[in-house]
C-alpha cells in the first residue's frame, strides 16, 4: 500500500482505504478504481493524500453499508418512502403513530447517508411527482441532518434534525388533498388554508408520546424567516430556534430541486443560488446557507448535468468567487459559466 498525492497518474489504480472529506463523509470507498472524475473530486475537496494498492495487495474492506450500488440505494430509499407514507396516512385517517415509529423509518437510512456522500446526488436524479409529500419530508430530514453534521453539531442533534425534517410537514395531513395536488397556483383563500399546516403539525406533535416542544416548534416555525416575513408567527432571527432555521434551509433547497405538481424541479446549483439570494436578502441564516452551499456544490464535481440550452456537460471545477457557476466541459470544450451568463445548470443527469 502506498500513500500518494491525488493526480492524473493515479487513474486506473485501486484505493486501498476509504477516503473521507473534512466533514467525515465518504468520498470514495476502498476498492474503487480511480477515474478522472474521481481525481477531480479529490482535488475539489483538497484531499492531500490517498492510499492505493500495489499489484500484490488487496484493498482493505470497510463496513459493508458504505458500499451502495444504485439498485441497493433505490431499494433502501423506496422502503423509507413507503414507511413514511404508511405513517403519514395513519395520521390522515385519525390514528396517532408513536414517535419511535417515525424514528425507525428515517434513522436506519440516515445512518448510511451520513457516511456516504454520493447518496444525496442519487435522490436528486429521481424525477416525477409521485408520493411528493412523503419524499419531500424524507429529503428534508436527510438534508437537515447533513447540515447538522457539516456545521459540527453533536451526533444526537444530527439525528434530531433528521427526525424534525421528516416531521416538519406532518400538518399537511390535515390539509385537503385537492389543495396539496392542485396543479395551478393557489388562490389567496387556498393559500391561507395551506399555511395552517404549520399549526396543525405543531398540534399533532404535541399529542405524540415522547415528542418534545422543540420538535413541535420545528413543524410550527419552518416557514418563519430571519427578517420577520415568514409565518405563522412572524418571528425574527433569535426568536426562531436554530434547529428551525436549519429545517427552513433544507425545506427550501428540496422544494426547488424536486418536481412539484405545478413545476419541474431544477438543479442543486439553481437551488443553491436561490438559497444564497435568500440569505443576502435577510430571509435565511447566512451561516447555515454558506456552509451548506460550500458542501453541496463540491459534491457535484465530476458529475454530469444538462444546461438550459440543452447541452450535456461535465462539472470540472468549482470557483471560490462564484461556486454556483462552475467550469464545465462540453466534449473537448471548456466553458466558464461565470463568463457565459446566459447559461446555467438546469438539472443533473445520471
From TrEMBL:
CDD domains to which the protein is assigned, alphabetical: HDc
Q: Which residues form the HD-GYP domain?
A: 111-308
Which InterPro entries does the entry mention? HD/PDEase_dom, HD_GYP_dom, HDIG_dom
- SMART domains attached here? HDc (SM00471)
One short Pfam name that applies is: HD_5
Q: Which PANTHER family match?
A: CYCLIC DI-GMP PHOSPHODIESTERASE PA4108, CYCLIC DI-GMP PHOSPHODIESTERASE PA4108-RELATED
Protein name per its UniProtKB record: HD-GYP domain-containing protein
Species whose genome carries this gene: Brevibacillus brevis (strain 47 / JCM 6285 / NBRC 100599)
Amino acid at each position: 500500500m502506498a500513500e500518494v498525492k491525488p493526480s492524473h497518474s493515479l487513474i486506473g489504480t485501486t484505493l486501498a482505504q476509504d477516503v473521507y472529506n473534512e466533514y467525515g463523509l465518504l468520498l470514495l470507498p476502498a476498492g474503487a478504481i480511480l477515474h478522472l472524475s474521481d481525481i477531480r473530486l479529490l482535488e475539489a475537496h483538497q484531499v492531500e493524500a490517498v492510499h492505493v494498492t500495489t499489484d500484490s495487495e488487496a484493498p482493505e474492506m470497510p463496513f459493508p453499508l458504505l458500499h451502495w450500488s444504485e439498485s441497493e440505494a433505490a431499494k433502501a430509499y423506496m422502503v423509507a418512502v413507503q414507511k413514511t407514507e404508511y405513517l403519514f396516512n395513519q395520521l390522515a385517517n385519525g390514528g396517532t403513530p408513536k414517535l419511535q415509529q417515525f424514528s425507525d423509518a428515517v434513522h436506519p437510512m440516515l445512518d448510511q447517508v451520513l457516511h456516504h456522500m454520493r447518496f444525496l446526488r442519487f435522490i436528486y436524479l429521481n424525477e416525477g411527482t409521485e408520493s411528493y409529500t412523503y419524499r419531500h419530508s424524507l429529503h428534508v430530514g436527510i438534508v437537515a441532518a447533513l447540515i447538522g453534521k457539516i456545521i459540527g453539531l453533536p451526533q444526537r442533534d444530527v439525528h434530531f434534525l433528521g427526525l424534525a425534517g421528516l416531521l416538519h410537514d406532518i400538518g399537511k395531513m390535515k390539509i385537503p388533498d385537492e389543495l396539496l395536488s392542485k396543479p395551478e397556483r393557489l388562490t389567496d383563500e387556498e393559500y391561507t388554508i395551506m399555511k395552517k399546516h404549520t399549526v396543525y403539525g405543531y398540534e399533532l406533535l404535541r399529542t405524540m408520546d415522547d415528542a418534545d416542544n422543540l420538535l413541535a416548534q420545528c413543524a410550527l416555525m419552518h416557514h418563519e424567516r430571519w427578517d420577520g416575513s415568514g409565518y405563522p408567527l412572524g418571528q425574527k432571527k433569535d426568536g426562531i430556534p436554530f434547529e428551525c432555521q436549519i429545517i427552513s434551509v433544507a425545506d427550501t433547497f428540496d422544494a426547488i430541486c424536486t418536481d412539484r405538481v405545478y413545476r419541474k424541479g431544477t438543479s442543486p446549483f439553481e437551488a443553491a443560488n436561490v438559497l444564497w439570494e435568500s440569505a443576502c436578502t435577510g430571509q435565511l441564516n447566512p451561516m447555515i446557507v454558506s456552509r451548506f452551499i460550500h458542501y453541496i456544490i463540491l459534491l457535484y464535481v465530476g458529475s454530469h448535468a444538462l444546461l438550459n440550452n440543452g447541452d450535456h456537460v461535465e462539472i470540472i471545477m468549482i470557483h471560490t468567487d462564484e461556486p454556483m457557476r462552475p467550469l464545465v466541459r462540453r466534449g473537448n470544450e471548456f466553458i466558464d459559466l461565470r463568463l457565459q451568463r446566459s447559461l446555467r445548470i438546469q438539472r443533473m443527469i445520471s
